[in-house]
Amino acid sequence: IFLPIYAIMEKAFTSFLLILLLLLQYVMASSAMTQINITTDQSALLSLKSQIISDPSHFLDESWSPDISVCLWVGVTCGSRHQRVKSLNLSNMALTGRIPRDFRNLTFLVSLDLESNNFQGNLPQEMAHLRRLKFLRLSFNNFMGKVPSWFGFLHQLQFVSLMNNSFSGSIPLSLSNASRLETLKISYNSLQGNIPEGIGNLHNMNLLAMQFNQLTGSIPLTIFNISRIELISFTGNSFSGDLPNGLCNGLPILKGLYLSKNNLHGCMPTSLSNCSQLQVLSLSFNEFDGPIRKEIGRLNNLQELYLGTNQFTGIIPQETGNLINLVKLSVEKNHITGSVPISIFNITSLQLLSLSANNLKGTLPREIGNLTKMQHLHLSTNTFIGEIPKEISNLVELEKLDLAANSFSGRLDMETFNISGLRAISLTDNNNLSGILPPNIGSILPNIEEIDLANINNLVGTIPDSISNCSELTFLDLPSNKLTGLIPTSLGYLTRLQYLN
C-alpha cells in the first residue's frame, strides 16, 4: 500500500516538531536547573558572609554582592562545564567568623582554602555532603572540637591541612577510609590518644605530619610500609616504644623522618641505610641508646642529622665522613667517646657541628679549617686537649663558636677568631689557656654580641679601650682571670650591654 506523498511529509514534519519540542524542554529544564544551582551556591556563600564578623580589608563587603555573578566574586572559581562553584580561596584575608551549615549546598566544591584567618568553632557535620572535595586547607585558624569523623566519607579527599588550630580529642578511625588521601597535616593542635592502625592503609600517602600534639602509644608499624611516603613528622608528642628493625625496608622514597621530642627508646635500626633518599633524620630528645650505626654512612643524600639528647654510646663512626652532602650534624648530650673522626672535617658542606656534652677527647686537627661554610661550631663540655688550631680563622662564615669546658692549652691568640661575622665566642673553663685581650679587639670582632672568657685563669693584661667598638656586645664575662688595670670608661658606650662580669 502506497501512501500519498503529502501524508509522508506530514508524518515526517510531525516527528520533527516532536523532537524539536523535546529538545526545547530539555534546554529549558537544564537552564532552569543551572539557574537554581547557581542560586543555591550564591545562597550558601552569602550565608558564609553573614557569619563573618570581621573583614578588615573589606574583601567580601565589596565583591560578594547578589548584583554580581557568583563566579566573579573574590576567591570564587566556577567550573566551565556546570558553572558551579568548584573552588573557594579566602586564605590570608584576616577574616573572623564561622562556617555555616548551609555550606553543605556547595556540592560541586573541589577545593576549599581558608588558611591564615581567624575562623572559629567546630567544622559543621553538614560539610560531609561535599562529596567532590579533594583539597581542604584550614590551617592557622582557631577551629576547635574533634577532627571530624566524616572525613572518612569524603572518598575524593587528597589533601587535608588542619595545622595550628585548637582541635582536640583523638584521630578518628574513619580517617582510614579516605583511601585517596596523599597529604595529612594535623600538627600543632591538642590531639590525644593513639594513631589509628588503619592510617597505615592509606597507601597513597606521601606526607604525614602530626608534630606537636599530645599523641601517645607506639607508632603503628603499618606506617613504615607506606611505600609512597616522603615525609613523616611526629616530633613533639609522647610516643613510646622501639623503632622496628625493618624501619626502612618499606620506605624507598622517604626524604624526611622527624621523631624528635618523644619517649622513644631502644637501638638505632641498622635498616636506616635502606632509606636511600633520606635527607633529614631527626631522633633528638628521646631515650635511644646503643651505638650510632656505621650503616648511617650509606645515606648519601642526608643533609641534616639530629641525634642529640639521647643515651647513645660508643664512638662516632668513621663512615659518618661519607655523608658529603651533610649540612647539619648534631650529636650533643650523649655518652659518645673517642676522638672526632678526621673524615668529618672533610665534609665541606657542614654549616652546623654540635658535639657538646659528650666524652670526646683528643686534639682538634688542622683539617678543621676545611669547614669554610661552618656557621655554628659547638664542642663544649668534652675533654679536648692541645692548642686551638689557627685554621679556625678559615671559617669565614662562623657566627657562633663554643669551645668551653675542655682542656685546651697554649697561647690564646684572638687573631685566630678574626672573623667579621662572629657573634658569640665561649672559651670559658679552659684552665690551661693563656694570653691577652688584643688592643684591636674592637676591629677583630666588630659584630660580636657575646664574649665568655671566664675561668681561663691565665688571661692577663688589661681590658682594651677598643672594646667599645664592639657596638653589638650584650654579654661580657671575664672573671677568674689575671686581668689588671682599670675598667675602661669606654664600656659606657656599649649601649646594648646587658651582662658585665
From TrEMBL:
What keywords are assigned to this protein?
Answer: Glycoprotein, Leucine-rich repeat, Membrane, Repeat, Signal, Transmembrane, Transmembrane helix
**Segment forming the signal sequence:** 1-29
InterPro entries for the chain: DNA_repair-toleration, Leu-rich_rpt, LRR_dom_sf, LRR_N_plant-typ, LRR_R13L4/SHOC2-like
Q: Where in the cell is it found?
A: Membrane
Organism of derivation? Capsicum annuum
The biological process GO terms on file are: defense response to fungus; post-embryonic development
Give the principal location in a single coarse category.
membrane
Q: Which domain of life does the UniProt lineage start with?
A: Eukaryota
- Ranges where the Disease resistance R13L4/SHOC-2-like LRR domain occurs: 268-405
Q: How does it sit in the membrane?
A: Single-pass type I membrane protein
Q: Where is the Leucine-rich repeat-containing N-terminal plant-type domain?
A: 40-78
Which family does the record assign? Answer: Belongs to the RLP family.
Q: What is the lineage of its organism?
A: Eukaryota, Viridiplantae, Streptophyta, Embryophyta, Tracheophyta
Give the protein's recorded name: Uncharacterized protein
GO annotations of cellular component type:
plasma membrane
